[in-house]
Amino acid sequence: MKTIGSTGAQGKESKGPKRSEQWENPLSRWLPLDPKESRFNDTWNVVAWFMLLIIAFVVPYEVTFAGSANPPRLFWWNRVFDFFTVIDMIITMVTAQPSESRPGTLEKRLPILACMYLKRHAATDVLSLLPSLAFLTRIEFPALRFVRLARLLRISSILRIAREWQINLGVTNAVFALTTLLLAVALLSHFLACTWAFVAVYLATEDPSSPNWIAAAQAAKGGPDEMYERPWDIYSLALYWAIMTLTSIGYGDITPQCTLEYWACSFCMICGGAMWAFSIGQVCGILTTMLPHDVELKQRLDDLNEMMQERDVPASVRATLRRYLFETHGVRMHEDHKATIKHMSPMLQFQVIGSSMDHFRSHLPYLRGDMPSELVVALSQKLEALLYAPKETAQTRRAICSARRGVAIRAGRILATGAVWGADAILDNEALRESAYVRCLSYFELLALPALSLAKALRPYPVQFAKFRWVMLHLASCRGVKLIAAAAKMSERRGEPAFGHLSVPARTEFIANVLSGSKESANSREQNSITRSPCANGATVLSGESLRQDVQEIKASVEMLMQEVRDMKAAAS
Fold it and tell me: Which of 140, 149, 398, 456 has the most Cβ atoms closer than 10 angstroms to its Cβ?
């Protein structure tokens, strides 16, 4: 009975929806908005940035000259601001945000996004709507004009949107800082102008007989009455005074006339002076770090000139050294980029430098195809940037090289940008490598991948290392056969016995001498060994036992080599 009852209870529970089930979003096709992928979000950020900028300039002007009433020409601007604020609130609420419970991921559940919005942004957005609430409820009070300043609470988003643009567009930090500073100076000048104009307008409205700076300026300067009555003209005079105060110029043609204006002027001078001092310090710091490589180059140039002066270097050599120092800009940039990439995660490193290895991979068979990202990053970090002057010989014997800029010549071949050479640098035998030097015809910059570093980086990856060993054996075999054939022909031309007529030990010694780069004739050694191998009866014969041992050793070596080749083929497949 208990089993039946429990089964029935389970059946009843299964009929109703479980509270633990995830909330299904009926608008999952459009919502929430992903800030990394949504184009609408990028477009809206542009609209929001310009609207916030308009609010920052229009609202102080409205508070200064509109009074408690709302002029018709500003009525529709306020309705546009209200509509924008409501739409922006909705978009912010349905935009995915970094998850609080799962760091590194985006929260896309709408109920949780709504709670996050209420916790972070709701208070500011509701306060910015207070002027609209006062308009809808028809509330009128003397301080209503100051309530409109609540709209300025949202202008803090200008910096956040600009920071996102900096990340997406790749704007340098110096340009971003200068732009932000200029915008801050413009906004402060506008606020100071509105404050200075508000004091005079307030005094003229409350007590027309009290002195104010507008009446004093009119009496001192003269001009039409409209110039001192129209709001835009008054704002122009106030802006002129604000910029003059902010930049500490101080012509003295517009001055305070009463106690209230003195207090307002003191406040504006404190704000303007602090902002101007901060701006000068920021601009000096930005200009100092705006072009760090140029600053370093100038310091190196000064050190070079001082060194050449102390050592009395000839004038012709001085010019060459200065030119070389200017040409090393690309090399220093390459080293700085390597240092910057080291601070990134492995995945980001592969995304940044994966394309820089494509040129090498297209010319090296063992680097083609799919490769682990860690291997690509390790190889790119092994690249060395080198620069050579005109008529200089580039020393790149044991490195695979790629030309970045300039022109050079190697074994009758012109090397220009994109040329790759030195594929035989992976061979350990120096006799099998091409011994041609690179002669620079201009300033020649190249990227070098040392062969030893390449082999060390490939060793932890069996598949790539097997391909590497197979290419090495194939290249060594081809080069060795050509080298032995050329040496045999030269030997025959000198009148020495032909290679085919030599005994097996003599052939082995001949091949060893050729591959080791020995200058002594192997055939001469063969003749000496034959004529000087005494027998018991004094005759010169060739020992059959030693010949058989040499043949067996060669067969064993060949068999081991073929087995190694088969193993590498199996690993590569």
Answer: 398
